[in-house]
Structures are given as structure tokens and as C-alpha cells.
Amino acid sequence: MKDNDWERLEEVDWLFRKMIRRYVKERDRVTVEGITLPGMLILHKIVREGEQRLGDLAEQLDFTSGAITALCDRLEAGGYTVRRRKEDDRRTVLLDITDNGREMYERNGNIGARCITLLSDGFTEEELAIQSQFYQRIVSNLEGFSETLLDLAKKNSEVITPQGLGQKPRNTSKSSKYLSY
User: Fold this and answer.
1) Model pLDDT for residues 58-103, shown as the tens digit of each residue
2) At 14, which CATH number?
3) pTM of the entire structure?
4) Residue 12 falls inside a structural domain
5) CB of 44 closer than 8 Å to CB of 105
6) In which domain, by residue range, is 76 found?
7) Is the pLDDT of residue 181 over 90?
């Protein structure tokens, strides 16, 4: 690989990580009547599809079970949602919106749409289609990401010198203005 190819990869990696950090930082600064944007996303899903199982919310919105629990705690404390156990299966917890939650969502339902338009502002339809393809490919590339790197780290730790002692692999990374791992 040429040096300029490697620099381009480092730049793309750095910009990708910067984009994610910036998005999360900005998203987490927004609260609507005490509810974060991920909480608003939960309300949106309930308004559109009716009460939801907490496990389904976590899976469909790509949140951890701990994050869903914390978000639901805040929604419930604000009087926007109510949790109940399913009659025929007490292990299943359902989340539904209250009248207060529905009213709050009606007042602020335009915020989610504005969030999306802010992110896509200035892009043409063609550019958005290309972005979608890139994001799909990145998501696909992330399948097995951690396992692959953990396997590599394990193999690196098993490198043996001729004398039988473990040796650290030599550093092959190029010097760059982008911070690497």
C-alpha cells in the first residue's frame, strides 16, 4: 500500500470517528421537556406502532438493554410512559405512552424530522443514495469487527522468537497527522 493510500485511510477513519463523536455530543445536549432525543425516538415508535416490548425497542433502535431501561425510567418519571407486565407472560415488560406523553409528543413531534433534515442538509438525492450505500457497506464491514481484531491481538501475543520468548510485533504504522489507535 502506498503512503498516500494509507494517509487517505487514516483520514477517513479519523473523520468517521470525529463524525460519530460530534453527533453523539450534539444529540446528548438536546432535551425536550426533560427527555433526550433517544427518548423522543421511543415515544415516536410507540405513537406510530403502539405499545412496545422493551426487548424489541432495544433491538430495533439499536440500544443496549441498560440504555433502554434508563431511558424508560426517565420517560416514566416524567409521566410520559407507563410500563406494565404482559398478563400471560410476566417476564415480558411492555411500554405504552400516557396522555401526557402523547400531548408532549404532539407539541414536539417535528423535532425528530428536523434532526434528520439538519444532518442531510445540502446533499443531493444522488449524494444521499451514495451515503446510504456507504453506510450499508460500513455496517456490513462491522460484522465480526471485534472478533477479527481480538483474534489478531491474540495471534500477535503468540509471536515467538527463535529463542522461544514472546516478542512484540514491530510497529508498522506510518507517521501521520491523524491520531491512530
Assistant:
1) 999 999 999 999 999 999 999 999 999 878 887 888 999 999 999 9
2) 1.10.10.10
3) 0.74
4) yes
5) yes
6) 3-124
7) no
